[in-house]
Protein backbone atom coordinates (compact mmCIF):
# COMPACT_ATOMS: atom_id res chain seq x y z
CA UNK A 1 0.00 0.00 0.00
CA UNK A 2 3.08 2.22 -0.08
CA UNK A 3 2.52 5.12 -2.41
CA UNK A 4 3.36 8.74 -3.01
CA UNK A 5 0.64 10.02 -0.76
CA UNK A 6 1.04 10.57 2.98
CA UNK A 7 -0.59 11.27 6.36
CA UNK A 8 -0.87 12.33 10.02
CA UNK A 9 -2.62 15.34 11.58
CA UNK A 10 -6.02 17.01 11.21
CA UNK A 11 -7.87 20.32 11.26
CA UNK A 12 -11.08 20.87 13.16
CA UNK A 13 -13.17 21.99 10.19
CA UNK A 14 -16.26 19.76 9.95
CA UNK A 15 -17.14 18.16 6.64
CA UNK A 16 -20.91 18.41 6.39
CA UNK A 17 -22.92 17.26 3.40
CA UNK A 18 -21.63 17.46 -0.13
CA UNK A 19 -18.83 19.98 -0.45
CA UNK A 20 -18.94 22.04 -3.63
CA UNK A 21 -15.79 22.42 -5.72
CA UNK A 22 -15.12 25.43 -7.94
CA UNK A 23 -14.90 23.25 -11.04
CA UNK A 24 -17.08 24.42 -13.92
CA UNK A 25 -19.65 22.16 -15.55
CA UNK A 26 -20.55 21.79 -19.21
CA UNK A 27 -23.67 20.40 -20.88
CA UNK A 28 -24.10 18.23 -23.95
CA UNK A 29 -27.00 16.63 -25.79
CA UNK A 30 -27.16 12.83 -25.86
CA UNK A 31 -28.53 10.86 -28.80
CA UNK A 32 -31.82 10.60 -26.94
CA UNK A 33 -31.93 14.43 -26.80
CA UNK A 34 -31.69 14.34 -23.00
CA UNK A 35 -29.37 16.95 -21.57
CA UNK A 36 -26.60 15.82 -19.23
CA UNK A 37 -24.50 18.12 -17.10
CA UNK A 38 -20.96 16.83 -16.72
CA UNK A 39 -17.87 18.25 -15.04
CA UNK A 40 -15.30 20.00 -17.17
CA UNK A 41 -11.91 18.34 -17.39
CA UNK A 42 -12.93 14.69 -17.77
CA UNK A 43 -11.39 12.82 -20.69
CA UNK A 44 -13.41 10.77 -23.16
CA UNK A 45 -13.16 7.46 -21.28
CA UNK A 46 -14.08 9.17 -18.02
CA UNK A 47 -17.06 10.85 -19.65
CA UNK A 48 -18.32 7.50 -20.92
CA UNK A 49 -18.41 6.05 -17.41
CA UNK A 50 -19.61 9.26 -15.76
CA UNK A 51 -22.60 9.41 -18.10
CA UNK A 52 -23.82 6.15 -16.57
CA UNK A 53 -23.64 7.42 -12.97
CA UNK A 54 -26.43 8.88 -10.86
CA UNK A 55 -25.08 12.17 -9.53
CA UNK A 56 -27.50 12.12 -6.60
CA UNK A 57 -26.01 8.81 -5.43
CA UNK A 58 -22.32 9.61 -5.51
CA UNK A 59 -20.45 8.43 -2.40
CA UNK A 60 -19.74 11.18 0.13
CA UNK A 61 -16.42 9.69 1.19
CA UNK A 62 -14.16 7.30 -0.76
CA UNK A 63 -11.17 5.58 0.81
CA UNK A 64 -8.48 3.93 -1.33
CA UNK A 65 -5.84 1.36 -0.39
CA UNK A 66 -3.14 2.06 -2.96
CA UNK A 67 -1.38 -1.24 -3.58
CA UNK A 68 0.75 -2.86 -6.26
CA UNK A 69 3.66 -0.47 -6.81
CA UNK A 70 6.24 -3.16 -6.19
CA UNK A 71 4.59 -5.69 -8.49
CA UNK A 72 4.20 -3.05 -11.20
CA UNK A 73 7.95 -2.39 -11.08
CA UNK A 74 8.90 -6.08 -10.86
CA UNK A 75 6.90 -6.96 -13.98
CA UNK A 76 8.92 -4.34 -15.83
CA UNK A 77 12.25 -5.47 -14.31
CA UNK A 78 12.59 -2.14 -12.55
CA UNK A 79 13.53 -1.32 -8.93
CA UNK A 80 10.64 -1.01 -6.47
CA UNK A 81 11.13 2.73 -6.18
CA UNK A 82 10.19 3.06 -9.86
CA UNK A 83 6.72 1.81 -8.94
CA UNK A 84 6.37 4.40 -6.20
CA UNK A 85 7.49 7.13 -8.57
CA UNK A 86 5.00 6.00 -11.21
CA UNK A 87 2.23 6.03 -8.60
CA UNK A 88 2.42 9.82 -8.32
CA UNK A 89 0.56 10.20 -11.62
CA UNK A 90 -2.14 7.87 -10.32
CA UNK A 91 -2.61 10.01 -7.25
CA UNK A 92 -2.90 13.16 -9.36
CA UNK A 93 -5.41 11.67 -11.80
CA UNK A 94 -7.54 10.09 -9.07
CA UNK A 95 -7.60 13.19 -6.89
CA UNK A 96 -8.46 15.54 -9.76
CA UNK A 97 -11.23 13.29 -11.06
CA UNK A 98 -12.77 12.89 -7.61
CA UNK A 99 -12.74 16.66 -7.10
CA UNK A 100 -14.17 17.36 -10.56
CA UNK A 101 -17.22 15.14 -10.07
CA UNK A 102 -17.94 16.57 -6.62
CA UNK A 103 -16.84 13.85 -4.20
CA UNK A 104 -16.76 15.60 -0.80
CA UNK A 105 -13.99 13.52 0.80
CA UNK A 106 -11.20 11.25 -0.46
CA UNK A 107 -8.78 9.39 1.82
CA UNK A 108 -5.66 7.69 0.42
CA UNK A 109 -3.74 5.02 2.36
CA UNK A 110 -0.11 5.52 1.47
CA UNK A 111 2.17 4.36 4.25
CA UNK A 112 1.35 2.27 7.29
CA UNK A 113 3.12 1.99 10.63
CA UNK A 114 4.05 -1.55 9.65
CA UNK A 115 5.93 -0.29 6.60
CA UNK A 116 8.56 1.22 8.87
CA UNK A 117 9.40 -2.26 10.15
CA UNK A 118 8.99 -4.33 6.96
CA UNK A 119 10.48 -2.16 4.22
CA UNK A 120 14.20 -1.57 3.59
CA UNK A 121 15.50 1.65 5.06
CA UNK A 122 16.56 2.86 1.63
CA UNK A 123 13.00 2.44 0.33
CA UNK A 124 11.52 4.28 3.30
CA UNK A 125 13.98 7.14 2.86
CA UNK A 126 13.06 7.35 -0.83
CA UNK A 127 9.35 7.51 0.06
CA UNK A 128 9.94 10.34 2.51
CA UNK A 129 11.81 12.31 -0.18
CA UNK A 130 9.07 11.51 -2.70
CA UNK A 131 6.47 12.75 -0.26
CA UNK A 132 8.26 16.07 0.18
CA UNK A 133 8.58 16.53 -3.59
CA UNK A 134 4.92 15.63 -4.08
CA UNK A 135 3.74 18.18 -1.53
CA UNK A 136 5.82 20.96 -3.06
CA UNK A 137 4.74 20.14 -6.61
CA UNK A 138 1.04 19.51 -6.04
CA UNK A 139 -0.05 22.47 -3.92
CA UNK A 140 -0.88 24.51 -7.01
CA UNK A 141 -2.94 21.65 -8.47
CA UNK A 142 -4.79 21.24 -5.19
CA UNK A 143 -5.60 24.94 -5.07
CA UNK A 144 -6.65 25.00 -8.73
CA UNK A 145 -9.16 22.25 -7.89
CA UNK A 146 -10.31 23.85 -4.60
CA UNK A 147 -9.03 20.84 -2.60
CA UNK A 148 -8.20 21.06 1.10
CA UNK A 149 -5.38 18.83 2.28
CA UNK A 150 -5.43 17.01 5.63
CA UNK A 151 -3.59 14.10 7.24
CA UNK A 152 -4.25 11.17 9.57
CA UNK A 153 -1.72 9.03 11.39
CA UNK A 154 1.05 9.57 13.93
CA UNK A 155 2.75 12.47 12.19
CA UNK A 156 4.92 13.26 15.22
CA UNK A 157 6.92 10.10 14.46
CA UNK A 158 7.82 11.26 10.94
CA UNK A 159 11.11 13.03 10.12
CA UNK A 160 11.02 16.70 11.10
CA UNK A 161 11.57 17.91 7.53
CA UNK A 162 8.63 15.81 6.32
CA UNK A 163 6.42 17.26 9.05
CA UNK A 164 7.37 20.78 8.00
CA UNK A 165 6.55 20.13 4.34
CA UNK A 166 3.24 18.54 5.30
CA UNK A 167 2.23 21.48 7.44
CA UNK A 168 3.17 24.04 4.80
CA UNK A 169 1.08 22.22 2.20
CA UNK A 170 -1.84 21.93 4.61
CA UNK A 171 -1.75 25.64 5.41
CA UNK A 172 -1.50 26.53 1.71
CA UNK A 173 -4.82 24.76 1.05
CA UNK A 174 -6.72 25.41 4.28
CA UNK A 175 -8.96 28.11 2.78
CA UNK A 176 -10.26 25.81 0.02
CA UNK A 177 -13.89 24.78 0.34
CA UNK A 178 -14.09 21.82 -2.03
CA UNK A 179 -13.07 18.20 -1.61
CA UNK A 180 -11.12 17.21 1.49
CA UNK A 181 -8.12 15.07 0.53
CA UNK A 182 -6.87 13.13 3.55
CA UNK A 183 -3.51 11.43 3.23
CA UNK A 184 -2.85 8.54 5.63
CA UNK A 185 0.84 8.25 6.42
CA UNK A 186 2.39 6.34 9.30
CA UNK A 187 -1.16 5.18 9.88
CA UNK A 188 -2.55 2.14 11.71
CA UNK A 189 -6.23 1.62 12.47
CA UNK A 190 -5.41 -0.24 15.68
CA UNK A 191 -3.12 2.58 16.79
CA UNK A 192 -5.89 5.05 15.98
CA UNK A 193 -8.28 3.18 18.28
CA UNK A 194 -5.62 2.98 21.01
CA UNK A 195 -5.02 6.73 20.67
CA UNK A 196 -8.78 7.35 20.83
CA UNK A 197 -9.10 5.52 24.14
CA UNK A 198 -6.04 7.29 25.52
CA UNK A 199 -7.67 10.57 24.59
CA UNK A 200 -10.90 9.48 26.28
CA UNK A 201 -9.04 8.54 29.46
CA UNK A 202 -7.15 11.84 29.50
CA UNK A 203 -10.37 13.78 29.02
CA UNK A 204 -11.99 11.84 31.86
CA UNK A 205 -9.06 12.55 34.16
CA UNK A 206 -9.56 16.27 33.56
CA UNK A 207 -13.28 16.01 34.28
CA UNK A 208 -13.77 14.09 37.49
CA UNK A 209 -12.19 10.73 36.75
CA UNK A 210 -13.12 7.50 35.01
CA UNK A 211 -16.21 6.93 37.16
CA UNK A 212 -17.94 9.74 35.24
CA UNK A 213 -16.91 8.42 31.84
CA UNK A 214 -19.74 7.14 29.63
CA UNK A 215 -18.47 5.50 26.48
CA UNK A 216 -20.62 4.98 23.41
CA UNK A 217 -19.99 4.85 19.66
CA UNK A 218 -20.48 8.57 19.20
CA UNK A 219 -17.95 9.42 21.89
CA UNK A 220 -15.36 7.05 20.43
CA UNK A 221 -15.93 8.53 16.99
CA UNK A 222 -15.29 12.01 18.35
CA UNK A 223 -11.80 10.92 19.44
CA UNK A 224 -10.74 9.19 16.22
CA UNK A 225 -8.36 10.83 13.73
CA UNK A 226 -11.28 11.06 11.29
CA UNK A 227 -13.67 12.81 13.66
CA UNK A 228 -14.20 15.64 11.16
CA UNK A 229 -15.10 13.30 8.28
CA UNK A 230 -18.12 11.13 7.49
CA UNK A 231 -17.43 7.39 7.46
CA UNK A 232 -16.43 6.14 4.00
CA UNK A 233 -19.23 4.83 1.80
CA UNK A 234 -16.83 3.08 -0.55
CA UNK A 235 -13.36 1.58 -0.07
CA UNK A 236 -11.34 0.70 -3.16
CA UNK A 237 -8.34 -1.62 -3.10
CA UNK A 238 -6.04 -1.97 -6.08
CA UNK A 239 -3.92 -4.99 -7.13
CA UNK A 240 -6.56 -7.62 -6.32
CA UNK A 241 -5.69 -8.18 -2.66
CA UNK A 242 -8.72 -9.08 -0.51
CA UNK A 243 -7.92 -7.47 2.83
CA UNK A 244 -8.18 -4.13 4.66
CA UNK A 245 -4.59 -4.11 5.93
CA UNK A 246 -5.31 -2.30 9.20
CA UNK A 247 -6.97 0.64 7.42
CA UNK A 248 -9.91 2.56 8.96
CA UNK A 249 -11.22 -0.58 10.67
CA UNK A 250 -13.77 1.33 12.77
CA UNK A 251 -14.92 3.66 9.99
CA UNK A 252 -15.33 0.99 7.29
CA UNK A 253 -17.93 -1.00 9.24
CA UNK A 254 -20.63 -0.40 6.60
CA UNK A 255 -18.54 0.62 3.59
CA UNK A 256 -18.95 -1.09 0.25
CA UNK A 257 -15.74 -2.84 -0.80
CA UNK A 258 -14.54 -2.72 -4.40
CA UNK A 259 -11.40 -4.64 -5.40
CA UNK A 260 -9.77 -4.14 -8.79
CA UNK A 261 -6.94 -6.16 -10.31
CA UNK A 262 -5.41 -2.91 -11.59
CA UNK A 263 -2.07 -2.13 -9.97
CA UNK A 264 -1.86 1.31 -8.43
CA UNK A 265 0.53 2.86 -11.00
CA UNK A 266 -2.00 1.93 -13.73
CA UNK A 267 -4.98 3.31 -11.80
CA UNK A 268 -6.51 6.51 -13.15
CA UNK A 269 -9.68 8.57 -12.88
CA UNK A 270 -11.58 6.20 -15.15
CA UNK A 271 -10.91 3.30 -12.76
CA UNK A 272 -12.20 5.45 -9.92
CA UNK A 273 -15.41 6.09 -11.85
CA UNK A 274 -15.75 2.37 -12.58
CA UNK A 275 -15.55 1.70 -8.85
CA UNK A 276 -18.27 4.26 -8.22
CA UNK A 277 -20.40 2.67 -10.94
CA UNK A 278 -20.12 -0.71 -9.21
CA UNK A 279 -20.94 0.96 -5.88
CA UNK A 280 -24.16 2.39 -7.32
CA UNK A 281 -25.31 -1.09 -8.38
CA UNK A 282 -25.38 -2.24 -4.77
CA UNK A 283 -28.13 -1.87 -2.18
CA UNK A 284 -26.84 -0.55 1.12
CA UNK A 285 -28.78 -2.17 3.96
CA UNK A 286 -26.81 -1.32 7.13
CA UNK A 287 -27.87 -4.63 8.66
CA UNK A 288 -31.53 -4.25 7.65
CA UNK A 289 -33.64 -5.81 4.92
CA UNK A 290 -33.56 -4.85 1.28
CA UNK A 291 -36.01 -2.34 -0.13
CA UNK A 292 -38.01 -5.00 -1.98
CA UNK A 293 -37.94 -7.76 0.66
CA UNK A 294 -41.75 -7.72 0.97
CA UNK A 295 -42.03 -8.88 -2.64
CA UNK A 296 -39.44 -11.64 -2.33
CA UNK A 297 -41.84 -14.53 -1.39
CA UNK A 298 -44.19 -13.72 -4.26
CA UNK A 299 -41.31 -13.45 -6.69
CA UNK A 300 -39.86 -16.75 -5.52
CA UNK A 301 -43.28 -18.46 -5.96
CA UNK A 302 -43.66 -17.06 -9.48
CA UNK A 303 -40.18 -18.25 -10.42
CA UNK A 304 -40.92 -21.72 -9.03
CA UNK A 305 -43.99 -22.04 -11.28
CA UNK A 306 -41.82 -21.50 -14.31
The topology string of helices and strands comes to EEHEHHEHHEHEHHEEHH
Based on secondary structure, the structural category is alpha/beta
Structural domains: how many: 1
Distance between the termini: 49 Å
Label the CATH architecture. Answer: 3-Layer(aba) Sandwich
In the CATH hierarchy, what is the class?
Alpha Beta
Taking strands numbered 1, 2, ... along the chain, how are they ordered across the largest sheet? 5-6-4-3-7-8
Polypeptide structure, described:
By secondary structure, this protein is of the alpha/beta class. The chain has a single domain (25-285), classed as Undecaprenyl pyrophosphate synthetase, CATH 3.40.1180.10. Helix content is 40%, strand content 14%. It has 10 helices and 8 strands. It has helices at 44-50, 69-75, 80-100, 113-118, 121-144, 160-173, 189-205, 217-221, 269-280, 296-305; strands spanning 25-29, 35-39, 61-65, 105-112, 148-152, 180-187, 234-237, 256-259. It has a 6-stranded parallel beta sheet, sandwiched between helices. Strands 1-2 form a two-stranded antiparallel sheet. Helix 5 runs parallel beside helix 6 (160-173). The longest helix has 24 residues, at 121-144. The radius of gyration is 21 Å and the shape is globular.
Structure keywords:
306 residues; alpha/beta; Undecaprenyl pyrophosphate synthetase; 8 strands; 40% helix
Topology:
Elements: E1 25-29, E2 35-39, H1 44-50, E3 61-65, H2 69-75, H3 80-100, E4 105-112, H4 113-118, H5 121-144, E5 148-152, H6 160-173, E6 180-187, H7 189-205, H8 217-221, E7 234-237, E8 256-259, H9 269-280, H10 296-305
Helix pairs in contact: 1-9, 2-3, 3-5, 3-9, 5-6
Amino acid sequence: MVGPALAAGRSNTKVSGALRARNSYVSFDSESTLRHTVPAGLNRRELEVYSRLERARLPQHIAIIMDGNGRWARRRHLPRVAGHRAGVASVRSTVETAARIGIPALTLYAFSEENWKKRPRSEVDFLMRLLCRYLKAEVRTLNDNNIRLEYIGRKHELPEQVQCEMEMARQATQENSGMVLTLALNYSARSEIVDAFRSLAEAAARNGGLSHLKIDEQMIGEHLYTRDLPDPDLVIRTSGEMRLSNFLLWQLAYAEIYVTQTLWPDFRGVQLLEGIEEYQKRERRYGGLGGDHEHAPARALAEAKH
